[in-house]
Design brief:
3 helices, 19% helix, OB fold (Dihydrolipoamide Acetyltransferase, E2P), alpha+beta
Length: 245
């Protein structure tokens, strides 16, 4: 596959929650009772899974319903393709919405595997580019949040990590010519916000911090809500390398 194809394949790989190789079993069909058969739907047997949530279990050998991105695609019964899809219906069977697909060849499978291997680094680079402040520091204290929260089962249950700044790797804070010796990092302690880093006293590493005005958080507090927003000290050279790009 050409380098141009490699470049264009990156977007669906990042956007897809499920990437799999499958053979088309039926056209204009559905095996999920809640999804009515019709144009733009196919049923395909999964031959190999390249990316999927562990919650789905082993999909190999199963038939799933696919809502195709194009209503009348050039895809035929018996054709084998690599599908990029997002979650749709998890009922008696699984139905997904396709982002795109292309022919399944050994070269295509290797390319997708390579792009998937690079995905964590691309994501980290994206989080670094969007950070307002990247520091090396250590959590000196955990404090209650001064923010009022509505009573809700999925409330974040904010807490504040007081982080001593050891060094500043980058800062886009034009309003503050110097970064203080410590910063306040608001983080959710609720398990409903499981992907977000949870901080404890003494935890040290690299913090990728930003403000989140859409959440109504006062500007005095930084946030690190993505799993990549906290990196161990061992990742320092990797972060510094990405900062140079």
């Amino acid at each position: 596959m050409s380098s141009r194809t490699v470049k264009s394949a990156a977007n669906p790989v990042d956007a897809a929650t499920l990437i799999f190789k499958a053979t088309v079993a039926r056209i204009n069909a559905s095996n999920e009772p809640s999804v009515r058969p019709g144009p733009g739907l196919i049923v395909a047997q999964v031959d190999a899974v390249l990316k999927a949530s562990a919650d789905l279990g082993n999909l190999v050998g199963q038939e799933i319903t696919i809502e195709l991105a194009a209503r009348r695609p050039a895809i035929k019964h018996g054709e084998q393709a690599i599908f990029y899809a997002t979650d749709w219906v998890y009922g008696k069977r699984i139905a997904v919405r396709e982002l795109s697909h292309h022919a399944a060849t050994p070269a295509a499978e290797k390319q997708v595997a390579r792009v998937l291997d690079e995905q964590p680094m691309r994501h980290l680079a994206s989080r670094i580019r969007g950070a307002e402040l990247v520091i090396v520091g250590v959590v000196e204290a955990i404090k209650p949040s001064p923010l009022d929260e509505p009573l809700s089962f999925n409330a974040p249950q904010w807490k504040v990590a007081s982080v001593r700044v050891e060094s500043v790797l980058t800062s886009t804070q034009r309003r503050r010519p110097t970064v203080p010796n410590s910063v306040s990092v608001l983080f959710p302690s609720s398990d409903d916000w499981a992907p977000a880093p949870k901080f404890t006293k003494g935890r040290s590493g690299i913090f990728l911090l930003r403000h989140e005005p859409k959440l109504g958080i006062p500007p005095d507090f930084f946030l690190a809500l993505d799993p990549a927003d906290f990196q161990p000290r061992s990742a320092l050279s990797r972060v510094q390398s990405l900062l140079k790009k």
